[in-house]
Amino acid sequence: MAEQKPKNQDIDFTIIGQGLAGSLLAYCLLNAGKRIAIISDGKQSASRVAAGLINPITGQRFVLAEKTPAMLKLASEFYTAIETKLGIRCYFPTPLIRLFNNEKEKVFYEKRLLQPHYTPFFSTKPLSEQQLVNAPFGGVIQLQAAWLDTNTLLDALADYFISHDRITHLPAQTNSQTTTIHCEGYKIKYNPLFSWLPLQPAHGEIIHCESKSKLAPEITVKSKWLLPTSQNTCRIGATFEPHISEPTQQEQSKNALLSFVSSLKKDNEFNLLSHQAGIRPATLDKQPFIGFHPHDSNHAVFNGFGSRGSLLIPWYAKLFTETLVNQSKIPAEADIQRYESLCV
Ligand SMILES: Cc1cc2nc3c(=O)[nH]c(=O)nc-3n(C[C@H](O)[C@H](O)[C@H](O)COP(=O)(O)OP(=O)(O)OC[C@H]3O[C@@H](n4cnc5c(N)ncnc54)[C@H](O)[C@@H]3O)c2cc1C
């Protein structure tokens, strides 16, 4: 007999939003044997614009955060397991060429080289002349980077949820037994239940191009990045404009990205295929927003993954599932309790 669409009284959790946060949390809860419904508004999410880069070493100072190696290991296992289960390919470990923007960055990198826990993240292989075009300060090959094809993953998960009758495009009725988990990305700022959380949304744009000549497989990062998605196509990004509040495409951003790629790959030509904009759900303290509403425990939030959703969401989806299923503690750095005084 075909599985029935869940009736409200059959639902343990209603998830609002079907970006990476809502989808991966739903996947974890289903795997934990919970009954879920997902409400999607069908609108484009930041997750579908994102390049899905996973770069363990971040910023001008080449920082490797304490939990990053563990998060990286979990993300790799998590995405690989989904690939096997759903019969897709969406997770691509790829070396990353980091070109220094200035002398200061080079000095930071050289200091990191002296710290043994950084060693597994840097190749000792020197960059070739071709890789060093327009890089007067030099660069390094970073290891353990990857990229996630978010569109392939989200499409496959949507099919998986449909096959389990877990998606509705209608506003669902909930009962007192159902916990509603809000995974609305930057649109949480319009949600009266959680608009008190200090979100710092950051507009960003990327372009998708076709290249005339064959591209090397590595990701290249300078002030911006180039991510080859096939031998002749690539994504180039991303801009960062915190003052633009809705995901609109800007002509000057497109031109800036095109001129970045032309200066990086002088001997190649690029034709624009598409241009997209999205809003990163970034937060004041750069930590996620996870947990229950202080005055209404039927409502919870799973959001605030900023520019690092591909790395952070698997980690926190697993931990929050443990909270929802076994009442384990939410990690303090992510628990919205830290902002409880703002909720009036
Ligand atoms: C230009 C750009 C580049 C990026 N590059 C990277 C990158 O390289 N690596 C990386 O890790 N991250 C990157 N990010 C960040 C990444 O996109 C986010 O961390 C992540 O996708 C956030 O996922 P989310 O599910 O929280 O939000 P979203 O993906 O925005 O999903 C939220 C969903 O909820 C829906 N929704 C909202 N309100 C309602 C409602 N009331 N009812 C039903 N549905 C609702 C929305 O329409 C949306 O579909 C980038 C972001 C941008 C904009």
- Small molecules in complex: flavin-adenine dinucleotide
> Looking across the biggest beta sheet, what order are the strands in?
6-5-11-12-13-10-14
The largest β sheet comes out as: 7 strands, mixed
User: What's the N-to-C terminus distance?
Assistant: 49 Å
C-alpha Rg, in Å?
21 Å
Give the oligomeric state of the chains in this entry, treating copies of one chain as homo and distinct chains as hetero: single chain
Broad shape: globular
What's the CATH H-level superfamily name of the largest domain?
Answer: FAD/NAD(P)-binding domain
Helix-residue proportion: 25-40%
Do you know the CATH architecture of the largest domain? 3-Layer(bba) Sandwich
The class by helix and strand makeup works out as alpha/beta
Q: How many H/I helical runs?
A: 7
Quote the average pLDDT: 93
> Which consecutive residue ranges, at least 5 long each, have pLDDT under 50?
none
Number of domains: 3
Secondary-structure element pattern, one letter each: EHEHEHEEHEEHEEEEEEHEEEH
Protein described:
This protein has helices spanning 20-31, 46-49, 68-86, 103-113, 150-163, 251-264, 309-326; strands at residues 13-16, 36-39, 53-54, 91-93, 96-99, 139-142, 146-148, 167-168, 179-182, 202-211, 219-221, 225-228, 233-237, 270-280, 289-293, 296-303. The chain is 27% helix and 22% strand. It is built from 7 helices and 16 strands. The model has no long low-confidence stretch (mean pLDDT 93). The strands form 3 sheets. A 7-stranded mixed beta sheet has the order 6-5-11-12-13-10-14. The chain has a 6-stranded mixed beta sheet with strand order 8-2-1-9-16-15. The chain is of the alpha/beta class and 344 residues long. The protein is globular. Helix 1 (20-31) packs across helix 5 (150-163). The protein has 3 domains: 8-49 and 151-196 and 286-342, FAD/NAD(P)-binding domain, CATH 3.50.50; 53-148, no CATH class; 202-280, D-Amino Acid Oxidase, Chain A, domain 2 (2-Layer Sandwich). The chain starts with 12 loop residues before the first strand and ends in an 18-residue tail after the last helix. The structure holds flavin-adenine dinucleotide. Flavin-adenine dinucleotide binds at residues 16-22, 39-41, 43, 45-47, 49-53, 183-185, 187, 204-206, 237-238, 278-281, 303, 305-311.
